[in-house]
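Review box. Two proteins, two foldings.
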Amino acid sequence: MINSVYEALVLQIKRALVLHGWTPLDSVCLAYRDYPTAVGTKRALTFLSDFGHNTRHLMLRGHYDSEGTNVIEADCLLIPKTADPGTLEHLVARFATAADAHVQASYAVRLLRVFGVGAS
């Protein structure tokens, strides 16, 4: 994929993530989102994978550990490299909504919500 096209897609994806509460990064991770939990603040991370110039999609994926498991691993999705801005925003919204739901259902977040235990 031509660098300028890839960089434009990355910027659009980061902007869409910001609309859903994520903070953009200039690193291997696209963005992060902090969540208050019963064990303190925990951070979710997003990544974008490109599997080469012969592929038609990028993969948006995330990472958030809860009880030794990445609870947002299954929320990954494919983003067409030719996606228009509206499609990109829709796909990122789908990822962000699913990831947030899985983090909210994680043990430490539920414990804080139900019992108010721990620090945020």
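Next protein.
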Amino acid sequence: MKVQLGGLVHILSLFIFIGVIVGMHFLLNVKFSKQEKKNIKIQNWVLFSLLCFAFITDILIQPVFIAQIPIFSEKWWNKMFRTNICSISVILFPCVFFTKSRFFKNCMIFIGIISGIAAFIFPEEVRNEYVSWFVIRFYWNHLIIAMVPILMLSLNLYKISYKDLYKPVPPFLFFSFYQCYIIFNQGINVYLGFHSKIDYANNSLEFNSDEFAPVFDWLTPPFMRNIPILSTIIPLAFFMTIFSSIIITVFLFSKKQFKFQKNWKWPRTVKTVSKNK
């Protein structure tokens, strides 16, 4: 079976995405201990283990055991110099999961959820590919980088508010930081001879891919359209602010609803005694 938009694999992957996240939420909501701190610790370590599994899968299992690329070889180092958003997240998220920095935690929340969901809706990297280990790894890793931030919010391990739209930095700047890192990595790849040229059609959009040019050009002044990163910074600010606002609104609303339902009690029934005349 091939991965095609609207095809069986594509539709099935979306149902699996929703089902696994909902299932993990209820599983981790189980009270493993009477002490709340121990429950939170267990939840954190489970989520961290998932991130580590994605990291090991991407760094070791896929290139070394599946693609049979010798470790520390030229091709292996080529894989290490990441050139797309989600592959950077696979490496970054385990390293910053336990940090108390709102900068990195917000980066996990907004980049992880938006890019992970986008990969399931538009699986361009595996489009027209037959189901194989490469396709399974693609879906598994993107599921984890989206699921862990979602569970961090749904399990109340991390709290967000509308202040996070501008503090510590606006969400679109996380995307721009990723783009800077990708351009640097592509330059290193070309310098070391791993790539013959820079990939200007990279789906991380740092060079304003032709696929998105009509939409991005509409939002970008003419003098900025041919400048890497700057050519996408205004459209990213527009779309990332909208998507980040949706994420914040959904989780703030769901928390209020849950709190209401949790504290809701059946109304007392008042027995009326009829008087016999």
